[in-house]
């Protein structure tokens, strides 16, 4: 995938495992968590080294440096093995078989979607990623702002299969259209979020990670409190944000990455304006 400035490899075999675009906000701890909890199938805790060296990367809040990294899976007490001739002491490293869920668009606009759009607008009133406020909201002018389903409408069957309704504490007749599955975004940022180029990590203080090269400068910002106020019953569901973040990691970091999604959406595809 073009634009990557970090790549990572199996330290034992040299096989390329994946990569990512570092736009500035990704820490070594973020990198480690994405490898351990999303991308890799390993039986022990990994260690990360500068490629071709024994320099161990410390897992902390320091910025992940651009470059190439070797991933090792030490067995037993051997946590600092950076040489391939000790492969008998290293565990196997495999990429997960999981793939990202592609968005499938519904062509039928419904009154429930209008209700979803209006509820998201009323709760947020601004793009919750950029912080840009809709100053013409009192005139009911929402040009440039779009209500976005975090979990896509077109994947209702998977929603039901995974019992995602359990994450909605204020369900209506169709929980996937709950305001808790929505965010208000500027149209340009909506495209990035929809295309799995940008996401929010609720396990890292709601930090926004931009996995792409673009012009909108949202990387490292914090998701606006207006949509996630813990004292509000209509707050966005953390579990759905977590699901979306996982899809972004799979799409952008695993192997060669997924193709960039197109954003020329036809009318009536669930992109509520």
Automatic annotation (TrEMBL):
InterPro entries, A to Z: DUF7881, HNH_nuc
Residue ranges occupied by any HNH nuclease domain in the UniProt entry: 127-200
Segments forming domain DUF7881: 3-74
UniProt superkingdom: Eukaryota
Name this protein carries in UniProt: Str. FM013
């Amino acid at each position: 995938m073009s634009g990557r400035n970090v790549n990572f490899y199996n330290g034992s075999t040299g096989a390329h495992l994946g990569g990512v675009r570092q736009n500035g906000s990704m820490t070594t701890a973020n990198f480690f968590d994405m490898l351990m909890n999303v991308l890799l199938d390993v039986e022990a805790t990994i260690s990360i080294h500068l490629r071709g060296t024994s320099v161990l990367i410390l897992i902390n809040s320091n910025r992940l440096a651009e470059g190439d990294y070797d991933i090792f899976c030490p067995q037993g007490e051997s946590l600092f093995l950076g040489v391939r001739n000790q492969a008998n002491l290293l565990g196997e490293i495999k990429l997960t078989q999981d793939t990202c869920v592609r968005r499938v668009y519904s062509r039928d606009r419904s009154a429930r979607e209008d209700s979803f759009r209006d509820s998201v607008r009323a709760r947020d009133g601004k793009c919750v990623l950029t912080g840009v406020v809709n100053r013409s909201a009192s005139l009911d002018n929402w040009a440039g702002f779009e209500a976005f389903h975090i979990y896509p409408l077109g994947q209702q069957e998977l929603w039901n299969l995974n019992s995602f309704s359990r994450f909605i504490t204020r369900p209506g007749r169709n929980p996937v259209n709950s305001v808790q599955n929505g965010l208000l975004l500027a149209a340009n940022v909506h495209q990035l979020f929809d295309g799995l180029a940008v996401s929010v990590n609720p396990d890292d203080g709601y930090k926004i990670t931009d996995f792409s090269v673009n012009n909108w400068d949202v990387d490292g910002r914090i998701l606006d409190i207006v949509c996630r106020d813990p004292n509000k019953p209509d707050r966005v569901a953390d579990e759905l944000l977590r699901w979306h973040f996982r899809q972004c990691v799979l799409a952008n970091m695993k192997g060669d990455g997924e193709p960039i999604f197109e954003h020329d959406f036809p009318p009536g595809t669930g992109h509520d304006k």
